[in-house]
Design a protein that fits this description.
By secondary structure, the protein is mainly beta. The protein has one domain: YmcC-like fold. It is built from two helices and 15 strands. It has a 15-stranded antiparallel beta sheet that branches. A hairpin with an 8-residue loop joins strand 11 and strand 12.
Length: 264
């Protein structure tokens, strides 16, 4: 009897301590098609590549690639991002971030190191392997930052919280500048249809405003839909970019024990 009670306590402790495991799951791969109207511009791929302990810290590593199709004129986008995120029960924050941009004749790398203990962000920019710029920025008011990739995983985790009239104002460090993104989640499930499934998917909507300018001029108002289940898989999103409004739609995935929930 004591053994059974002890086992139950251990199970409940780890269930409470790590509710993010089904959201930020090592090995998860999510692939999206990017549309401008009916024109397919390119693809975006996300992957959670690792998890490890650094002392008392629980760290998750994720990558993303953004690439436009070669056949699309006047658009040439080719990026790889990597984020190392410190996790707790309901959110993540960035600890390291790398952005690599591939151009026709050069490669640019940007590195961020968020040193929260010393209240500083250290940045470095390299062009074709040579250091182009370095700086150290003071962190004020003990802020905890997101980068351009960790934002996605943080929002997925926050969507599991009590969403009743709750608005999030999240500090972001992007393009070597401090900024923010504001959003909130819907109260009721919504139905979303995508080509990948032959039924409507039950989703939680997130809508907000990005105060920064991201890849391809991404800024301003946006909306996204996460699966309304314990996995919170991003299903669809709409953003404003340089050429207008674009849509990201889930095209394929690799995720343990997940099937998009049916809207009823």
């Amino acid at each position: 009897m004591r053994k059974a009670v002890y086992t139950l306590i251990v199970f409940l402790f780890f269930a409470a301590a790590y509710p993010q495991d089904k959201i930020v799951e090592v090995g998860e791969e999510l692939n999206y098609s990017v549309y401008y109207g009916f024109i397919k511009l390119g693809e975006v791929k996300f992957k959670v590549t690792g998890r490890n302990k650094d002392g008392k810290n629980d760290l998750i590593t994720a990558t993303a690639s953004i690439k436009s199709f070669d056949a699309i004129p006047m658009i040439n986008i080719n990026y790889i991002f990597e984020s190392v995120m410190l996790t707790d029960k309901s959110e993540v924050r960035s600890t390291k971030f790398t952005a690599t941009e591939f151009k026709e004749k050069s490669i640019t790398n940007i590195y961020y190191n968020f040193d929260y203990d010393n209240e500083a962000i250290k940045t470095r920019k390299e062009v074709d392997g040579r250091t182009d710029a370095e700086q150290t920025i003071n962190i004020e008011n003990k802020k905890m930052y997101q980068d351009g990739l960790s934002l996605l995983y943080n929002a997925r985790l926050q969507s599991k919280a009590d969403r009743n009239n709750q608005r999030f104002n999240v500090p972001v460090y992007i393009n070597e500048k401090e900024s923010s993104v504001r959003y909130s989640f819907s109260q009721k499930p919504e139905e979303v249809e995508i080509d990948l499934e032959d039924y409507g998917i039950r989703c939680v909507k997130v809508a907000g405003v990005a105060d920064f300018v991201g890849v391809f001029g991404l800024t301003g108002e946006f909306a996204g839909w996460f699966s309304d289940d314990e996995f919170r898989v991003p299903i669809k999103a709409k953003f404003n970019v340089t050429i207008g409004s674009i849509t990201l739609e889930l095209a394929s995935y690799k995720k343990k024990s997940w099937k998009a929930p049916v809207y009823k």
